[in-house]
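fold-stage: in
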Amino acid sequence: MPWPEPTPAPAPAPLVVDEGPSSTTSVQRNPAVAPVPRFGAGSKAQRLPWLLPTRPGTPGVAADEARLGDLAVRAASLVGPGHRCEEPATARQDAYRIARDARGDHLLLALADGVSSSAHAELGAAVAAGTAVNLLRRRLDEPGGAARLRATELFEETATAMRHEAGRRGLAPSDVCAVLLTAVIPTRPPTASGERTLWAAWLGDASLWLLAGDHWRYTAGDRKGDAGGYDSNAVAHTLPGDPLAVRETRLAVRPGDVVSLVSDGVGDGLATIGELNSYLADRWRQPLPVASYLNDIGFDAERFLDDRTAITVWVDPAARPRPSGAGEGWSS
C-alpha cells in the first residue's frame, strides 16, 4: 500500500511577548543569519556538513569578549573546513587564552596553532597557550614583573610543560608540536598621552597585525613566505623542540589603535586576499558583537581550509572615529 501524502504543517505562529495582564505584542521572526563572507569562488569544503573527530577533542568553536581598563577584546577560534568535512575529521588544532593579572593592570594573550603533522596537535596547542598565560600571570603579579619579561624564559618553560604533558600521556614530544604567539598590553596608559607599550613574543607563523587606515598591516610573527610560501604548511621552528628560536618585540600603541593576533588560517588571508584584508579592516574598526566577530573568522575562500583563530584588542576604542552609518551593532 502506498504511503499517504503528508499533511502540510501549519504555519508557525508569531512569537508573543507578554508585557502585562492586558497587553501583548507580536514579535516578528528574524530571517536566518546571513552566511559567512565569501571571497572569490569559495571552497567546496565550506559547504559540506561538519563531521565529528574519531576521538573526543576540543570543541569546534570557541569565542570570548571582555573589557579590561580601556581595552576591549574579542576572540574566536573555529575548526577549519578542511579538518571538519572529510573522514577522518580532526579536532580544532588552534587554541587561545585571554587573561589578566591580579591587579587588572595588564591584559595577557596567547594564541597557539598545533602542527598538523603532529598526532596530538590540539593537545600541544592547548598546553602551550594555557601554560604561557599562566606563566605571564605569575611574572606580572611580582613587583616590577612587566619590566622583567623574557621571551626565552617564557618559551623554555612552556616547552618543558608540553614535554611533561606528552610524557604523562605516553606520547613523544613530536606528537604535541605547536607554534605560539603571546602578548601583554597595559590596561591603562602610564602618561597623559595615552601611549603604552605592547610586549609580544612568538615562535612560528602566528602573526600580529595593526589596523592602519583602511587595511591591516603585518607587524610581527614569522612570515610564512620565508618557510615555503603561503601554500605551504612548513614552519621553521616549533615548540617544544626549538624554544630558543623565540623572538620578541615592544610596540608603542596609542588610543584608537587596533591590534590583532591571528593564526595562519587568518593571517595568510590578510596577507594574500586584498578584499578580505579590506573587509576585516572595515568590520573591525570598532568592537563588534562576538557572534559577528566569529562569523567573520569563518570566511569562505578557495584553498583556505585551515583552522582560524584571532584575538583583536581595541585600545581606548572611544578615541577611534566611528565609521559613517555605524548602527546599534557596535559596542565596546
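fold-stage: in (second)
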Amino acid sequence: MFKNAIVRIPATTISEGITSIDEGQPIYSKALVQHENYVSALTKAGVNVTVLEPVDEFPDSCFVEDVALCTSKCAIITRPGAPTRQKEAELEDMTQALHSFYEHVEKIEAPGTVEAGDIMMVGDHFYIGLSARTNAEGAAQLIAILEKYGLSGEVVPLKEVLHLKTGLAYLENNNLLVAGEFQTSPTFEKFNKLNVEIDEAYGANCIWVNDSVLVPKGYPKIQSKIEALGYKVLVVDTSEYRKIDGGLSCLSLRF
C-alpha cells in the first residue's frame, strides 16, 4: 500500500517540453486544472501528496517519475537520458523531499542513464526497460543498488515505445495491462494479461494506488476491463500531458 506521493506543479513553459508526437501544444491553464484533479484523485486513493513548486527552467519537470525511483527500502535519484532533463534530478526541493521520507537515498552516476518511466515495480522485483533514455550502464547501477537492499531487477529491451511503462501497467494481484510489443513478450507470460487494443494504446499507462486504479479519460475498453476485475476506477483527464508524451504514472512518485 502507498502512503505518500510527490508531484510538481507544471511549469509555465510546459509547451516547450520534449515531445515525439504532433498533437498541438498543451494549454497551460487546462494543464493546471488537470494536475489539480490528478492530485485530488491521488488523495481519494488514500495517499498524502507533497506538492513541489513549478520550475520554469525545466519544461518537463512536472514528470517527476523520471527523476527518482522510490522503493520500500530506499530512494534512488536517477540520471535522465534526455540531456535537457539531467539537472532536474539535482533540484534541491526534490532532494529534500526524498530525504524527508527516506533514510537511504542513492544516486545513478555518469555515464549511466536511467529514467524511472522505464521501471515497473512488481513487489520487490523491478523490470527495467533499456531504451533511448535508460542505458545498460544505468540499469546495471540500478540493479546493484536494488540488490544492496535485498531487492532485485532485470532488464527488458524496448523496440517501439518511449518508456517501459508506456506499454505496461502493473495493477497488483498479478494483473498486468499490456500494449504493443509486450503482448507477446515471454518476460510477462506469468501475469494475468489485460491486452490493450491499438486504438487505446495511450490508455495503457494507468496506475494502481491502494486498490484504486487511476485511468486516463477517454479509454472505455480499458476502463471496462479494469472494473471487471473489481477495482475502483478513478478517471483523470490527461489530454494536455499526452501532447508532450506524458501520462498518469509520469506525474507522481508513489511510495
